[in-house]
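REQUEST FORM: STRUCTURE PREDICTION
Request ID: SP-0412
Submitted by: Lab K.M.
Chain count: 1
Length (residues): 195
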Amino acid sequence: MNYPCGIKIDRKKTISYGNRGMSLEKELNETNNYYLLKNIAVIHKKPTPITIKKVDYISPTRVKIKDGYFQKPSTTDYNGIYRGQYIDFEAKETNKPNYFPLSNIHKHQLEHLKKIITHGGIGFLIVSFNAYNEIFYLDGKDLFDFINTNTRKSIPYSYFQEKGHLIKIKFNPRLDYLKIIDEIYFKGEYYEEKY
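STATUS: Completed
RESULT:
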């Protein structure tokens, strides 16, 4: 394809999958920032624990990591507190139109979510089905109910439609998943800006 000024675009170039999930992550970060600014909740993305072994000092204010490793497997993507309840969740995207592969969630992440729920916290998944531009909240209890009663290695899209909650994309907050938590855990009493 040729664009103005003689620029050629080759559509057959290799696609990099290194940043898959970044758009969902960006929208969740914006949502969490809104919650924080409005004093609704304190929810943050967890940093990945990395040990740095070697760096190059490019300038006094810029350092480039040359060698490092993950200290241990990270747990889930986000955690925080809302209305006195600890919440913890994993956010994933899938390009599969008919299912979400369970292999996208590591075993230690599932074990972590199970512990959160066992100890009275709110654990869940947020899954974006990119084929439909739809984002679902799936409560941890429904996630584990599916895992415990099925031998499938994927969760069908229809299960998200049946048991999940569609998160409507809005201006602010972008992905208001706390509204769903209000419906499930607080009998539909919606939060208000505090103080």
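NOTES: The mean pLDDT is 83.
Reviewed by: T.R.
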